[in-house]
Amino acid sequence: MIKAELLDRLIKFRSERDWEQFHTPKELAISLSIEASELLEWFQWKNDAEIQLKLNSDKREALEDEVADVVAYLTYLCHDVGIDINKAVEAKIKKNALKYPIEKVKGRSDKYSEY
């Protein structure tokens, strides 16, 4: 998902700080969940109009920071356990296409077990 050059910079950043020792798969998964929760906080208690206002304000940078944190931890996790994120997403799209055939789900938000 991220460019190879950016991945190299991210891995180098971590390595220069000797943070690999803290980045076990468990700790990365926990950190990813925490950062995803911080991303949710950006939207909490806001209606669509308020969110649009925030998106067009100087507060947008805080959202971008949270997105970057989520991507960084997910990238570290995939790198460290040998998951090719592009292949994983591609495989999941194929699985979801079988679970959610267009003719059954178009325009609906039902879970596959409900139709």
Brief descriptors of the model:
Helix Hairpins, mainly alpha, 6 helices, 115 residues
Structural class category: mainly alpha
Rg, please?
18 Å
Low-confidence stretches at least 5 residues in length (pLDDT < 50)?
Answer: none
Going by CATH, the homologous superfamily would be MazG-like
Beta fraction? under 5%
CATH architecture: Orthogonal Bundle
The strand count comes to: 0
Encode the helix/strand succession as letters.
HHHHHH
The main sheet comes to:
none
* Total individual domains: 1
| Termini separation | 32 Å
Would you kindly provide a written description of the structure presented here, covering whatever features stand out?
The protein has 115 residues and is mainly α. It has a single domain, classed as MazG-like (Helix Hairpins, Orthogonal Bundle), CATH 1.10.287. Helices cover 70% and strands 0% of the residues. The protein is built from 6 helices and no strands. Helix 2 runs antiparallel to helix 4. It is globular and about 50 Å long. The model has no long low-confidence stretch (mean pLDDT 96).
